[in-house]
Amino acid sequence: MEGKEDNSLSGVKEIARRANVSLGTVDRVINNRAGVAVKTRNRVNAIIEELNYQPNVLARRLALTSRGTLRLAVLLPDISEETEYWKAPLEGINKADLEIRQYGVQVEHYFFDQNVQSGFAQQVNRIMENTPDGVLITPTFEKESIVLMKFCKKKKIPCVLMNSDIPDQQRLCYIGPELFDSGYLSGQLVHYCLKDGQKAMIVNIAREIESNVAILRKEDGFLAYFREKLSEDQLVHLNMTDTGYAAVAGRLTALLEEHKQIGIIYVTNSRVSLVAQWLESIGRSDIVLIGYDYLDKNLDYLKRGVIDFLLCEKPQEQGYRGVMSLFQYLVFSTTVQDDYLIPIDIVTSANYRYYRN
Amino acid sequence: MEGKEDNSLSGVKEIARRANVSLGTVDRVINNRAGVAVKTRNRVNAIIEELNYQPNVLARRLALTSRGTLRLAVLLPDISEETEYWKAPLEGINKADLEIRQYGVQVEHYFFDQNVQSGFAQQVNRIMENTPDGVLITPTFEKESIVLMKFCKKKKIPCVLMNSDIPDQQRLCYIGPELFDSGYLSGQLVHYCLKDGQKAMIVNIAREIESNVAILRKEDGFLAYFREKLSEDQLVHLNMTDTGYAAVAGRLTALLEEHKQIGIIYVTNSRVSLVAQWLESIGRSDIVLIGYDYLDKNLDYLKRGVIDFLLCEKPQEQGYRGVMSLFQYLVFSTTVQDDYLIPIDIVTSANYRYYRN
DNA sequence: CTGAAAGCGCTTACAG
DNA sequence: CTGAAAGCGCTTACAG
């Protein structure tokens, strides 16, 4: 047992007293600022070590309040009829915004239309003009995203990716699901539900399937499972670039006619509601339906038993964590930030209540 | 647009200036402390409203640092060979502890042996003697828990329940799963996996099944699903109060002999590993096995395909949130705290990686 | 290279 | 009932 001194002093003051220097010098050492004699620096550092000193983040942040605000730029798709999904990440971002506002952080939104690549490019330019202190993006268009990421790298602005990843570029971290495993998991669910003699169908519904990294990765994972544990003979493929209901319903009807043994359908994104609508209209809710995302429309079908499984990747949390990791990095200069792979939740009519937000 | 004045002042200072009172008075009003003339109080409150003033929690907490520490008592089962599970909530509690320590909060642990009711009572007494500022408990033994809860109520100490609930007592909130739905969800999974002509088995393994609220609730939910969508004829029951492997294996072997059609087994707690061990020993990993908890032992079986589904209820998060909700309540005097029903995660060999802690 | 002073926004004795 | 002063632990000009 070491005799603990009556430490009326603590923190920087105690360090200053022991090292026989002023608070200013202690501060310079702690924050690695220039202008301290090596000898002094060493002495102070030794005491810091000895005391196992941990700065009080409250006090630090309070003292910094007077200094300028930190500006975080957030780039993500706007919310449209077609992309209700993006409401969720935005909610998470706003939640984080509210929490850290009082720490002198300010979040600036940049929205783009997912179908307009030039609009994305334009927003990237605006961000670069405004040179924020941190950047959070959904890298929907790879080329322009890389432009921004390179800019950030040069300017030493931390850049966080969300929802889907572009590896091998200098980014602070990626926050989102491991999409391959998401598909693989779907394969597994299909396997559990497949009755004897049945077939499964995989359905991609999107304007640009070939350039949609997310869909391709999920499909890869799904097929990997089939090759491993089942057989591709048991699988029917469908790609729909016409995303209208009539078109989808038409093709599905034809395919079901052709492959009467289809017992399970896996839709690789949130458009699963189109398939649900169709299944319901033909009175075939016995077919197991698996799809994506905790959207009101999808939940309706889930509750009614038309959709059986929804895979969900915590969109709010992605937004929240995206902002918070920038905040942590910039304010508390936390060390290396790790990628955060979001869990892939399996949601059914029996547990969906507990996944609200 | 209102002309915004050059507010060099803000916060309490600005309020004091406008109301023509001192900081002390403003503080009294903000914190509802006595000793302010009604007229003054009203004037100050009006300005607070007008300014839409929000106190800076950083500054508040920093100022309070000098005051005494807040002491939180945490009561939960200790970690033994038999109850590795409780490591997880403890981790969450420790994580919260680390985060809020610098805000002058101190967590005190009280452990008990789940098999010794008198030990639980003893710890309850110790807590009451120490009169902490907040209490977080796992109410394993109902009677003693109620004693503690009543004590808290009288002393106005906030009390949070974790893991299982005792409703209708004055508690700040409950943090844990809705156990009925957990069983119901299991019924649903069984339904999806059940092939034609197969039967399912439900297995309870615990010393005291009849007094184990958690197990009973899950079983209720499970049976409810069967009554609703399947038939009880398709179900075989097994209660094991002898929790040793030999006994379990013996009974299971006999039952499987009797009911050869059993294709799925649902174990209502983390002892699913005993059944997994048996299934593996008799080479029947084709039987679908569903159980509970993200424990190393269970994960091993999950990865090897012996266990198919693990239902998990975020034990770390329960501990973390339990502490944090007390903290929020005591430090920021957040208003009514709501119960937080933890999601029931469905974990398989394809998504378990993302549920680590 | 170093120190003394002022300040971040709030709270608390203490004195009247 | 009210105010002036000191302090929470850290940071930042400014002066030397």
TrEMBL record, chains A, B:
InterPro entries attached to this UniProt entry: HTH_LacI, Lambda_DNA-bd_dom_sf, Peripla_BP_I, SBP_2_dom
Secretion signal span: none
Keyword Electron transport among UniProt keywords: no
Keyword Transcription included in the entry's annotation: yes
UniProt-listed Pfam families: LacI (PF00356), Peripla_BP_4 (PF13407)
Superkingdom of this protein's organism: Bacteria
GO MF assignments: DNA-binding transcription factor activity; transcription cis-regulatory region binding
Keywords tagged on the record: DNA-binding, Transcription, Transcription regulation
Residue ranges of every copy of the HTH lacI-type domain listed in the record: 10-64
UniProt-recorded name of the protein: LacI family DNA-binding transcriptional regulator
